[in-house]
Amino acid sequence: MIDPLSNAALRVGGTWHRENRSCLLTRMSASNPSSRAGYCTSGAFIYWITRRRSVSGSQDKLLAAFTYVQNRPVCFHQDLISAFPRGLVQVTVRTKHGQVTRVNPFECSGARSWLARSRSNLRRSEVSCSSLVSSPLGPSAGSWASSPLKSTEDGEASVTPQKNRPLTQAKTEPDVSRFSESLLKRGESLRNSLGLGSKKVKNKGHVHSVTQSSLEEEKEEKEEQEEVRQEMEETYTLPELPHTPLSVMQINKLIETGLLEEAHLNLLAMRQEFQREREQCAEDSTMELAKKEKDLSLLYGELQSKIRSIVLECRKDLPGSVARIIQEEEARRGEPGGLQGSWMEAWRAAVREGVQAAVGRVPLEQSEHNPSWLAVHLGLLGKAVVEDLENARQALRWSYPPSFKVFSACVEAHRQVIGQHLKELERRATELRDLYALLDWTINTYKSERIMGSVSLQPDIKDENTELRLEENFLQQLKDKYCCRMKVDLGAFLDGVIKLEHEDVWQSGAPPTKEETYLVSKFPMDVWTAVKSNVVNSGKIDAQLEQKAVSACLKELKQFPKRFEAEFKRRCSTLGRQRVWAEYHISYINSFTALQQHMEGYCSVCPLEVEEFRKEVKWLIVRLMEVLEDQFKEGVKPYLRRMMTRKWLTNDDDFKELYSQTDLFSQHCAAMRPPHVQAFADHLHYHVVREYVGQLMKNNYSCKNRKHEKAGDKIRVQMGKLEAAFEDTSTLTWLHQVGADLSKIVGLKNKTDIKNNLEPLVRNYPDFRKKHLVAVLNFRGLVRGREHHAIMQRFTELKKKQGSESIDKSRVLFQDMDVTVNTDCLSNLPFSCLRNLLPD
C-alpha cells in the first residue's frame, strides 16, 4: 500500500500547498487520540474518516483504511481547515458491494468545538455553501461517484503522490474559482481577527476596534453554541442491516474498539437470522440455535457493559450511538434473542453508578486530621453535585433524544445516591458539630440556592423533585442522635463549670465577685450561653429540632443543682463559720436564681421541663438558705442565752456580740437578690426577736430593788437596735411593737399601772397567753400579791373580750415559745398557810 501522507498537498481555498509528510504531521494536532479518528487521502485532499458510522457492508474497506493510519492518531489542525464551513469536507466511499455513502467529519465530537467558532466567523461571509470543493485529481468529494478508497478488488489503488515534482493546478469551474477566492479573502480576515496576520497588519491595528471585534465574536460564539445545543431528534431511520452479519469475534472486536453502531447493526442482523432459524427450527438444529442464542446473549452483555462504561466515563463522543442503540432495543424488547429487562433502566442504573462514583471521588478526610472534616466534605459534595447537574443540563442532555430526560435522570440519581451517602456519613458522625453539619446540609443546604436551587440549574430544576430519598425515619434518628450528643456535651460542660469554680474560687478561698451590691458567680452566664447557643443553632435547622434541643438541655440541666451542691459541700466543708462560707452561699443563691430566670424563657416551648428545673433550683436555694440560717442561729445562740440575766443587766458585751452577728447577716441580706432576700431576712429577724423575747420566759432572773426599771429601759433600747438592723431588708414590721410593749410592763414604776397597759400587747399578739404574762411578771419581780391578782384578772377580761378569733398564723410569736415553770411550790402560797408548817 502506498503511503497516503507522503508529500501530501493541501488545497485551501483555491491555492495548492505542498508539504512533506513530517511537516504535515507536525502541523496536525494529536491532542485527541481518544476520538480514534483515521485519515486517508484522495489526490490532494486530506479527509477525516471517523469510526462513528453505520455503513452496511463497508467495514472491510473502511477498517483497512483506519488500520493503516491507526498508529498515527492525528486530527485536523485548525489552520488547515479553518476556511472550510460545515459540509465542505466529505468522504465518498464505494464499497465492494456497490453501496455508496458520504461521511462528514464535522459530525464527530472532535470537530464540534471548532465548528461553533468557525461557523460564527463565516456567518457574515457571502460564500455560497451549495456545492462541495472538487478534487482536481478525481471526482468531487460530495458526488456519488467512485470513492477514492476503491477496493483492491476493483483493480484500482490510491493515487500515487509524485515525489520531487510539484502538482499542476487543475482547471476548475468558474463557480468554484469564485468560491475559492471568497474563501481566501475570508481566511485572511479570520487570520487578522485571530492575530495571525503579518506584522505589518498587526502594527496597524487599533485597540478599540480589536476590543469591539472581540466582543462581537464572543457574542456570536455564544449564539452559535446555543444554536448547536439542540436535542437529538427523537425519531431516526435505522440503516440497512448487513446481509451477512460478522462473526462473533468480529462483532466483539467492534464493541471493544468502540464501533458500537456498526456492532449493533451486525447484532440485529444476527438476531434476525436467529429468529428466522428459530421459526424454521428443525430437531437437528436445536443445539445450533442454543449456541447462537448464547452468543447473542454474550454479545449483548458485552454491548451493554460497553454502554455502561461510556455512561460512567461521561464520554461525549459516543452518547448518540448509545441513545440509538437503547431506543432500538427498547422497541425490540421482548423479542427473541435479546436481553431480559429494560435497556432504559440499565442506562439509568449506569447514570446512578456514575453519580455514585463522582460522589466517591469527593475528598473525605479523617476526623483525626481535621476536626471539621464533615463540614468540609459536605461543602465539596454540594459543589460536585452542582457541577454534575450543570454538565448534564448544558452538555450531556443534547447528546440524547428528549425521551431520555437526561437532566431528570441525573437529578433522580443524585437524590438516591446522596441519600445513601448521607446514611454512611451518619454512621461516622459522632461529634455534635458533625451531626449539626449533617442535619443542616440535609434539611437546608441541599435544597437551597447553593445546590439544587442554584441559578445555573434554572429553569429546568423547577419542575424536578429535589427531595432527598432518605431511609424511613432517617431524619428523626439523626435528630435524636444529635440531641443525645448535645445532652452529653452539656453534661461534660457542666462538670467543667464545677471544676473551674473549684480551681478559681474554692481552692484559693477567693471571695465571690460583686456586681453592684450583689454577690454573684460567673457560671450562670456561661451555662445560659451554652444552652442558648445549642437552641439557636438548632432553630436554624427547624422548629422541631429547636424544641427537642430545649428539652434535652433542660433535662441535663435538671441534674446540675444537686451535682453542684454535692461538690460544693465536699470541697468547702472545712471553711466552717468563716465569712466567705456565707458569701459563697449567698452568691450561689443569686446565681441559681439568675439561671432559673434565664430558663423561664423556654417555658412556652417545654413547660414541663422548665417546671422540673424550677423545682430543683428552688430546693437548692432552700437548702442553701437553711445552711445560712443555721450558721446564724449557731452564731447568736451563746449570746442569746445570756440575755435576761444578772450579767446582762450590768454588762453589754454579750449583746454587742449578738448585734454584731445580726448586723453581719443583715449585710449578707443586702448582697442577696430578690425575691429570696426578703424570705431570708424575715427568717433571721423573726428568729432573733423570738429568741430574745424567749429569754424572758426562761425565769433565769428576777429583778428586785427597783432593778426592773433599768431592765425595761435596756429591753427597749436593745430591741430597737435589733429592729434597725433589719429595717431595710425584713418585711416583718409587726415585730417592732413587741419590744416596746414588754419593756413597758417590765419597766413601769407603779405595779397598778401594769393592768392598764396590757391591751396593746394582747391586741398586737393574740397568741400571748397567761403563762407568758406570769413569766414576764416574774422577771419584773412581781410574783404574787394583790397587784399580781388584779393584773391577771384584767388579762382574763381582755382575752374574753377578744373572743375566739382565729389567730393569723403569719403573725405568731408566742404560741410555741417555751415557758419555764417555777418549781418552787411554796413561793406562791400565802403566809397564813405557811404557819401551819412551822414548828410550835
Short overview:
The protein has 840 residues and is mostly helical.
Describe this structure in words.
The protein is mostly helical. The protein has 5 domains: 9-228, no CATH class; 248-341; 372-471; 476-626, Tetracycline Repressor, domain 2 (Orthogonal Bundle), CATH 1.10.357; 658-831, Tetracycline Repressor, domain 2. The protein has 30 helices and 8 strands. The chain has helices spanning 21-27, 59-69, 78-81, 109-122, 174-193, 199-203, 207-228, 248-257, 260-279, 286-313, 319-331, 343-360, 373-394, 406-428, 432-443, 474-506, 523-541, 543-558, 560-572, 579-599, 607-640, 646-650, 653-670, 676-694, 707-725, 736-747, 759-764, 770-780, 786-802, 831-834; strands at 9-12, 15-18, 38-42, 45-49, 91-94, 100-103, 513-515, 518-520. The protein has a two-stranded antiparallel ribbon with strand order 1-2. Strand 5 (91-94) and strand 6 (100-103) form a beta hairpin. Helix 13 (373-394) packs parallel to helix 15 and helix 21 packs antiparallel against helix 23 (653-670). The chain is rod-shaped and about 150 Å long. Residues 159-171 have a biased composition (Polar residues). Belongs to the SEC6 family.
